[in-house]
Here is the input.
Amino acid sequence: MTYLAKPRLHHPELPKNKLGYTHRDYEGAVSTLCAGCGHDSISGAIIQAFFELELPPHRVAKLSGIGCSSKTPTYFLGNSHGFNSVHGRMPSVLTGANLANRDLIYLGVSGDGDSASIGLGQFAHALRRGVNMVYIVENNGVYGLTKGQFSATADRGSKSKRGAVNNDQPIDLVLLALQLGASFVARSFSGDKAQLVPLVKAAVLHRGAAFIDVISPCVAFNNHAGSTKSYDFVREHNQAVNRLDFMPTHSRFGAQAAQGARRLQPGRSYRGNKLPAAARRCGRDRHRTVVRTARCHGFACGTQHRRHSAQRIARSRARSRRRRAGEVQRVVALSAQVLDAVTCNSSSPRTRGPRGV
Here is the structure.
């Protein structure tokens, strides 16, 4: 009954955030996707993230391309700005909108066919330029609108619903985003809401290009035995490299964990368990190693890479320059005081004693 409109009336005691909005205020139209589609779970996570962040929907501009994934912006944030572009051209439209109005939060939703095939060049240059946006790819490994052909992200050896085996190497969008210099890169699973919601919240508040690759099984054409992007396969091979939460506040506090107290930084995602040894240090090379190693056994989900934006780095450098300038001024002032004291002592008359004493 997806053709029925949502009723305007709702329970008067629905939970509200500080803005007075309920979950219904962040929803959109009724989904027309297949029942059980992972894309609807991603829409639910986006709704939950914006509700918890207490952001008004009219501050958001959502853009998409062509495909099942690109239909989903209709199903969340119904009171926000929206634009549905042509196939693979969403990043350039988002870039132009961002240049025209930098006060909005830009949310780009695309699919593996839309971003990894016809729109691969647009995807690469948007991340390379560091456009301030949240770029979510709903990755199911097939073209759902055209009866389930393999997409560019389909894993080698994966079987289609008709039994055909994919012999081509896949394009890993997470590795590509790391290589292109995106300042926030993550991978998640549509069936893991506890992990996906904090990732979306962290990406929304991140300044710079934030990219999230979400494995989202297609129940119609890619949810069978032999598929590497089915619900059963992803749940069995999902390697959560971290457990996430997000603090949008600006106060620091210590968290007592089983492994000892940890210092948590405000306004960013944090890890609640230990990462593999290869990912304990920051750096794109080490994160790429984690992603490549996990591909032998499944998917590495969670925050893969996050670095400060160029604006934040510039502010940090400016603070360092001001601090050094202040230290120089203090040294100069102290030197002047010492010089004055020496001058006063040398010019003051001395008391002479008897000759020969």
In short: The chain has two domains: 23-250+263-307, 308-342. The two ends are 116 Å apart (CA to CA). The first helix runs from residue 38 to 53. Residues 250-282, 351-357 have pLDDT under 50 and may be disordered.
